[in-house]
Write a structure and sequence with these properties.
2 domains, 0% strand, DUF4219 domain-containing protein
């Protein structure tokens, strides 16, 4: 298992839902998902050798398919179910303050003089995806307005 390459992106800040679906399918295919759902007994003494092996393999697999920034959250996990729940809570449980902070950061994005228009639009789109995953959707007109707001007048006057 360790030598097999994963054919999809590692977990990052903005791909949790796609990553979770792919990782779930991969763990199912490897017959390791049962270590997460329903999970095994909390008492390690009650696990069979086969369950211990699946637990270890599943945890190692999850650790291999996340970006380095998540390793500090997972370093004390001895159970894959707890690792999965930690990653899920990082990406799915957002308080209103977090959303407001993200929204504030989004609306203040400005194009930098060393940035191409493609890079700037990519940054706006990336933030739109992050906010969409958290339940904040924008219509195209609003996204265009944010793009214009963050552009110097000499750039967008030609566009209007």
């Amino acid at each position: 298992m360790a030598s097999e390459k994963v054919k999809y992106p590692l977990l990052s800040d903005d791909n949790y839902h796609a990553w979770a679906r792919r990782t779930h399918a991969d763990l199912e295919q490897r017959r390791l998902w049962e270590a997460i759902d329903p999970g095994y007994d909390d008492d390690p003494e009650k696990l069979t050798p086969k369950q211990m092996r699946r637990e270890t393999d599943a945890l190692n697999f999850v650790i291999q398919v996340v970006e380095d920034q998540y390793l500090s959250y997972l370093h004390q996990c001895v159970r894959v179910k707890s690792a999965w729940e930690i990653l899920e809570s990082i990406h799915c449980n957002f308080c209103i303050l977090h959303l407001i902070t993200m929204l504030e950061e989004f609306v203040t994005i400005k194009i930098k003089y060393n940035m191409t228009m493609c890079e700037y639009i990519g940054k706006i789109q990336s933030w739109c995806r992050k906010l969409c995953v958290r339940g904040l959707n924008f219509v195209d007109k609003a996204i265009a307005a944010f793009m214009l707001r963050g552009s110097p007048r000499e750039i967008y006057e030609d566009l209007i």
